[in-house]
Amino acid sequence: MSIQRATINELNFLTELFDSYRVFYQQESNLEGARNFLKERLENEDSIVFIAYDEGNPIGFVQLYPTFSSVSMKRSWVLNDLFVNETARKKGFGEKLIKTAIDFAGDTGSKGVSLETGNDNVTAQRLYEKIGFKKESNYFYYFSF
Q: 48-54 and 57-69 as β-strands: parallel, antiparallel, unpaired?
């Protein structure tokens, strides 16, 4: 198992993984759209992506987006996307990807890493809590379109 930070050179591998991730969340497959979206993120340095490899084969990724806290005057990272191919699940790749993201956040001097998951995603909740994430109970999250 190895994990490396994605660059534009890994765009083809990452596009396949990202498209599979979106399909997992009931989106239509759209390789061209996935490629364009990721290419823009990487070129503009809008996000940080790490890819996991198993014996040289790309099997998963984690994507972080920066955010900032005015109160603490620090950057934080949002762990927005985490995906491991179904054939590679339950082998520690997800945990290793998350820990890589946390290490990256620490290396960049940030406040920390936040994430969200569905109420019914108990498997992910167990993993996050095992790694040390705490369920937030002091805040409500709102969304508007």
A: antiparallel
Bridge partners of residue 44, in order along the sequence: none
Q: In what order do the strands lie in the sheet with 74-84?
A: 2-5, 48-54, 57-69, 74-84, 113-114
138 assigned to some structural domain: no
- Residue 49: enclosing H or E segment and its boundaries? strand 48-54
87 torsion bin: left (phi>0), alpha (psi -120 to 50), beta (else): alpha
Q: What are phi and psi of 69, to 5 degrees?
A: -110, 120
Mean pLDDT of 2-27: 95
Q: Which strand (E) or helix (H) includes residue 36?
A: helix 31-43
Residue 25 falls within a domain, yes or no?
yes
pLDDT single digits (tens) 73-84: 999 999 999 999
Structure tokens at 8: 């534009």
What residue numbers bound the domain in which 45 lies? 2-131
Mean pLDDT, range 120-145, rounded to an integer: 88
> What is the pTM assigned to this prediction?
0.92
